[in-house]
From TrEMBL:
It is found in: Membrane. This is ABC transporter permease. It is a multi-pass membrane protein. The keyword Transmembrane helix applies. InterPro entries: ABC2_TM (IPR013525), ABC2_TM_bact-type (IPR047817), ABC_2_transport (IPR000412), Nod_factor_ABC_transporter (IPR051784). Pfam families: ABC2_membrane_3 (PF12698). Keywords: Antibiotic resistance, Membrane, Transmembrane, Transmembrane helix. Its main location: membrane. The keyword Transmembrane applies.
Length: 257
């Protein structure tokens, strides 16, 4: 039996917070080094914001400046691209190649691995939102409302999209996840109130689209940031329901291999 202090450092797993922090840092670095992910999470939202704010292409249904309508919707799109599309694709291929299985057998608990992935998503979103905010302000954006309400909308939106993304990645094959995640991204870009006002859709269609998480997030952000409204409880409620359903379903049916 060896005496205490014989081995330096002491054998054994690192403290849990340190393991989560290290895994989150690794996940963030991998995401930022991925050109396809950067295209999806940074370049596309930035180009949409600049293009549709500078050129009169889409009737936003707003009497004010176009950028005041578009900026909240593009912020919602940034959350969708990172928390749902990007995370679903990356996690799906990690599952296919056995990365998740190996990480699940490490001293890092599986719930802590998902926590690290969530932290990576949040860090990426902070960078996205900072960049998009600077671009929107340069285009003449005049935001209003309570920043805490905006933060709550973004956090609930992240939870909702993360749950749906993990559910897709943990139940479908990687190739199917890739196709489905990109298709959903495009459909929600058009029908989620991001760049086209939901008022442009027929009443029956609009009633359904308003229940989608992207619509609730973009409408809620627009009510606060453009109109200076208070807490949009209806939109928060929709996001909360999607978050509970998505995360619950992901926890129930996610397969690690």
């Amino acid at each position: 039996m060896t005496a205490p202090g014989t081995f330096t450092p002491q054998p054994g797993p690192a403290p849990l917070p340190r393991m989560i922090r290290a895994q989150a840092t690794l996940e963030t670095r991998m995401l930022l080094r991925n050109g396809e992910q950067l295209l999806l999470t940074v370049i596309i939202p930035s180009l949409l914001l600049v293009l549709f704010s500078s050129v009169d292409i889409v009737d936003t249904g707003s009497d004010g400046k176009t950028v005041d309508f578009l900026a909240p919707g593009v912020l919602a799109l940034a959350v969708l691209s990172t928390a749902f599309t990007g995370q679903a694709i990356a996690t799906g291929f990690e599952r296919r190649y056995g990365v998740l299985k190996r990480l699940g057998a490490s001293p890092l608990p599986r719930w802590a691995l998902m926590t690290a992935k969530t932290c990576s998503v949040l860090v990426t979103e902070v960078l996205q939102i900072a960049l998009l905010t600077v671009i929107a302000l340069a285009l003449g954006w005049s935001p209003h409302g309570n920043p805490l309400t905006v933060a709550l909308l973004l956090l609930l939106g992240t939870a909702a999209f993360s749950g749906l993304g993990l559910l897709m990645a943990g139940t479908l094959k990687a190739e199917a996840t890739l196709a489905a995640a990109n298709l959903v991204f495009l459909l929600l870009l058009v029908g989620g109130g991001v760049i086209v006002s939901l008022d442009k859709f027929p009443d029956a269609v609009r009633a359904v689209l308003q229940l989608l998480p992207i619509s609730a997030l973009s409408d809620g952000l627009r009510d606060v940031l453009r109109d200076g409204a208070g807490v949009p409880w209806g939109d928060l409620g929709i996001l909360a329901v999607w978050a509970v359903l998505g995360l619950g379903a992901a926890a129930r049916w996610f397969r690690w291999e």
